[in-house]
Design a protein that fits this description.
CATH topology: Mago nashi protein
CATH architecture: 2-Layer Sandwich
Shape: globular
Distance between the termini: 45 Å
Number of helices: 5
Helix content: 25-40%
Number of strands: 8
Order of helices and strands: HEEEEEHHHEEEH
Number of domains: 1
């Protein structure tokens, strides 16, 4: 009987700890934020889709990893990462050109059309939300957006080291 109680208590403890580490952050009505990530369709493994949120000087990673090719809207489930990881990504606002923020176009290039991947970007700044898909292929992506996609990709690689 005591073993059964210990197993139940252990299971309950694991459940509670797991529940505390995840957070569904409501982004509506919040201050500025940026969601960024990459996606690869012809890929296997956890690193094929990586999505991050920077909000309130904190970095979060989405645990659901939806494939962003074709859609940008998604119900995220965020886990907060370390301050060290945040430092690697905190300057992402600075690499996004104003021409992108002002653009009505939501897709640049052909993200992941040839299995080379794409970049997801959502920015809320001054109450306005913009969403974009950027190509990782230099020949199909207009400047300066290819450079933006490469820089975001490099930030993601640094976070994942």
């Amino acid at each position: 009987m005591k073993i059964d109680q210990k197993i139940i208590l252990f299971g309950l403890l694991i459940f509670l700890l797991d529940a505390c580490s995840k957070s569904e952050i409501n982004l509506e009505g919040t201050e500025d934020y940026v969601i960024f990530g990459h996606f690869f369709g012809e890929c296997q493994g956890e690193s094929c889709v990586e999505t991050y949120l920077i909000k309130d000087e904190k970095l979060f990673e989405d645990e659901t990893d939806p494939y962003a090719g074709g859609t940008i809207d998604h119900h995220w489930k965020w886990n907060q990462l370390t301050d060290e990881k945040y430092v690697l990504a905190k300057d992402i606002f600075d690499i996004i050109p104003s021409t992108l923020l002002e653009s009505e176009n939501q897709t640049f290039g052909m993200p992941d059309a040839g299995d080379w991947g794409g970049i997801l970007l959502e920015v809320k700044r001054d109450g306005e939300v913009g969403r974009w898909l950027l190509d990782l292929n230099e020949t199909t992506t207009p400047e300066p957006y290819y450079e933006v996609s490469r820089e975001i990709f490099e930030i993601i690689e640094k976070i994942n080291k």
